[in-house]
Design a protein that fits this description.
single chain, 5-stranded parallel beta sheet, 4 helices, globular
Length: 107
């Protein structure tokens, strides 16, 4: 069994979150995806080594949470938390991400 030492990061190119991800790269191997479709493909291929998915909340919202909906009922992904990222203080409406399968929300 592979050690879960990778983070799958799904953020738009040039995001402010890039700086945060650079900090995480000291502890994890970071795999980037520019969009949810590429992220889902990577997750399918490497699920056994992915510790968590960091997903830009605005990106997820613009697709009506398609990524989390796709993985919600697949047991292969049930142990992999999806953590939402925001570059600004979340609004009250951002809390709905938990209804769509997010484990946490970080700013």
């Amino acid at each position: 069994m592979n050690a879960k030492n990778q983070l799958l990061v799904i953020i738009p190119p040039g995001s402010i979150a890039d700086e945060f991800v650079k900090l995480l790269s000291a502890e994890f191997q970071v795999i980037y995806a520019d969009n949810e479709e590429d992220g889902f493909r990577i997750l399918q291929e490497q699920a056994s080594s992915i510790a968590a998915v960091l997903l830009d909340l605005d990106l997820a919202r613009s697709s009506n949470f398609s990524f989390t909906k796709r993985i919600a009922f697949d047991s292969a992904f049930s142990s992999i938390p999806v953590i939402g990222t925001k570059t600004e203080i979340p609004s009250e409406s951002d809390v709905d991400c938990f209804d769509y399968g997010f484990s946490d929300l970080i700013v």
